[in-house]
């Protein structure tokens, strides 16, 4: 059966993990039964501000928040991809966690930090590919979309889909859409890009408006579905025949290395 994915576009409460966990859990509970994977925006559990307050809300991937999310993934039989500020020893990362219904957790630590992130966070070193209901799936975070060599490396790794949580500025929403389509075409694969919406308005931090604009892109670069600015859930089934036929047309062979 072809997999069904949900891009769960939400507002994130910066520096408020308990509020965000409740939002994620509520959204998971409201998903249709047919959803196999739920993708949430960048920093969905913690938000981020460029000062030491972010360190105070950093999470441990082995801690109680992720125990709770593992339980909900099991109860709903839905894998989820959710991000946070992670504390790992003396380092802090912008981390995605892919959580399966069986309780397995695979982290991806953002390799290309944007702007003020680089002053507070440590970039990840490893590219990550996980086996998901959508096939071999590469994980990217937001600004990673800009780097073509990451896309090429994931083509060599033989991925069938990219999952891309983001927190894209509203003023550059067109670039988010363009890059998601480009990365689908680069490797002839599905792209599920989930954007944060709403507004960051934290005392003594720069105010930011987020684009939302979550979208699912087919392997031929056609947008199969998208959201606007408001919170919502985009649900789409990823047709394996579409992937196979488009690769036949283009003549792309994945996993060459």
UniProtKB/TrEMBL annotation:
Gene3D superfamilies: Carbon-nitrogen hydrolase. Keywords: Hydrolase. SUPFAM superfamilies: Carbon-nitrogen hydrolase. The keyword Hydrolase applies. Pfam families: CN_hydrolase (PF00795). One of its GO terms (molecular function) is hydrolase activity. Residues 3-240 form the CN hydrolase domain. It comes from the Archaea. Coiled coil: none annotated. This is Carbon-nitrogen hydrolase family protein.
């Amino acid at each position: 059966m072809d997999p069904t994915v949900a891009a769960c576009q939400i507002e994130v409460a910066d520096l408020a993990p308990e509020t965000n966990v409740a939002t994620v859990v509520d959204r998971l509970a409201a998903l249709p039964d047919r959803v196999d994977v739920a993708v949430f925006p960048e920093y969905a559990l913690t938000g981020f501000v460029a000062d030491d307050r972010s360190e105070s809300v950093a999470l441990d991937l082995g801690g109680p928040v992720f125990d709770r999310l593992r339980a909900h993934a099991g109860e709903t039989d839905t894998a989820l991809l959710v991000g946070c500020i992670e504390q790992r020893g003396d380092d802090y990362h912008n981390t995605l966690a892919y959580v399966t219904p069986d309780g397995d957790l695979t982290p991806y630590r953002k390799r290309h930090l944007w702007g003020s992130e680089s002053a507070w966070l440590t970039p990840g070193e490893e590219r990550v590919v996980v086996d998901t209901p959508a096939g071999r799936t590469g994980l990217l975070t937001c600004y990673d979309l800009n780097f073509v060599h990451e896309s090429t490396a994931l083509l060599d790794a033989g991925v069938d889909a990219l999952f891309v949580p983001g927190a894209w500025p509203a003023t550059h929403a067109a670039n988010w859409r363009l890059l998601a389509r480009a990365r689908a075409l680069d490797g002839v694969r599905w792209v599920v890009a989930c954007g944060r919406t709403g507004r960051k308005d934290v005392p003594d931090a720069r105010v930011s408006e987020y684009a939302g604009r979550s979208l699912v892109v087919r392997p031929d670069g056609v947008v199969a579905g998208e959201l606007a600015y408001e919170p919502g859930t985009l649900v789409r089934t990823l047709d394996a025949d579409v992937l196979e036929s488009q690769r036949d047309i283009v003549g792309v062979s994945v996993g060459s290395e």
